[in-house]
Amino acid sequence: MDFGEILKLWDAKAGTPSAADAVRGDGKDEPRERRLTKKDIDALPVDARLDLHGLTAAEAEDALASFFAAAERGGCRKLMIVHGKGLHSASEPVLAGVVRRWLERRPSAGKSGHPDAANGGNGATWVLLKEREGQRSR
């Protein structure tokens, strides 16, 4: 029996690991989370939405804290935050900066970006919540 035949027998008996069975590479026997493409992210439904129009920076931070706490408890995956483009700000857009800095500090906030123009463009930010230990994506 040559080596090729041995491999075929082994494959028939044990199979080969699929991408879903791949290990993390850090010694843990947990499946790797599949990396989402832009198309995947765009296709995800928005589980919760927050509109910050008209709020001060301090009010926006309070609203973000409450919103994220509720979204995390509710098992949400994709959130939309509407902050506006800052057209009525005296200098630079205030609320967009508040949201960006707030997301950078929030441990549960994962990947984020701006939706297409039909869904708010630069006047909104979507964010994916990181999965908690033991939580599965929907």
CATH class of one domain: Alpha Beta
| Helix percent band | 25-40%
So what's the overall shape? elongated
Low-confidence stretches: 17-24
CATH fold-level assignment of one domain: Ribosomal Protein S8, Chain: A, domain 1
Number of helices: 4
Helix/sheet category:
alpha+beta
Numbering strands along the chain, what is their spatial order in the largest sheet?
Answer: 1-2-4-3
Output the helix-strand order.
Answer: HHEHEHEE
Radius of gyration: 21 Å
Average pLDDT score? 80
Assembly type = single chain
Q: How many individual β-strands?
A: 4
Proportion of residues in extended strands: 5-15%
Largest sheet: 4 strands, mixed
CATH architectural designation of one domain: 2-Layer Sandwich
Calculate the terminal CA-CA distance, rounded to whole Å: 47 Å
Provide structural commentary.
It is a single chain. The protein is of the alpha+beta class. It has a domain at 35-129: Ribosomal Protein S8, Chain: A, domain 1 (2-Layer Sandwich), CATH 3.30.1370.110. Helices cover 34% and strands 14% of the residues. A four-stranded mixed β-sheet has the order 1-2-4-3, covered by helices on one side. It starts with a helix and ends in a 9-residue tail after the last strand.
How is the topology of this model organized?
Layout: H1 3-14, H2 38-43, E1 48-51, H3 57-73, E2 78-82, H4 94-105, E3 109-113, E4 124-129
Parallel strand pairs: 1-2
Antiparallel strand pairs: 2-4, 3-4
